[in-house]
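Ticket #4471: structure export looks truncated?
Reporter: QA, pipeline team
Priority: medium

Steps to reproduce: submit the single chain below to the structure queue and open the exported record.
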Amino acid sequence: MPIRTFRRRTAALAAALGAALPAIVHAQASTDGAQPHRFTAEGYLAQYWLDNGVADKQSLGGFGARLMFNRSTPARAIRTLADRATVGVFATYTTGQGDPEVSTLHAGAEVDASLFSAPIANGFLDPFVSVGAGFYRVSADLPVTAGAGDRRVRSDFALTPAAGTRIPFFNGIGARGDLRFPIIFGNSTSVNFVAEGGLYVSF
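Actual output as written to the record:
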């Protein structure tokens, strides 16, 4: 092969690789689903439909916060479901509502695990499964006689399986929605339902 032809082809190949490199890097980043952030803080609103154990089933609105820690540093694409897990703590509070007036506090630790190695739907959705364990405290003011009342408070162990999705916006900021099913082990076991939605910041 003539030297000039070889040089021209080499130069053309180098130019083609140079032009393709940004696309290759972008595609690799999308495939890796790397998570450079170590912590994620979230605030959310919650709507409970629960058997509170001291009164009838009630619908209660509240708010909460969670702090999650990403224990792994390798790219998500090479991890198993367990390796994609994040661990953290949460607390959800509902103020006194209803008749009788009931307030609740649900707090504990949880583990979340992304279902896929990278967000799906062109990067708009990052579905996950979750399980939490902690305590569920309910306080109720029950009417006894005119002008007097009875306040009942109880705390029970709660196990909370859940599923949901993150909706990444940009640079570690996004939205998150959860459907959670607190199983409360009191005098009798009750399965309850809560929907949560909020915003998160990863750093």
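Status: closed, not a bug. The export was complete when the record was re-opened. Leaving a note from the reviewer for reference: The longest helix spans residues 3-32.
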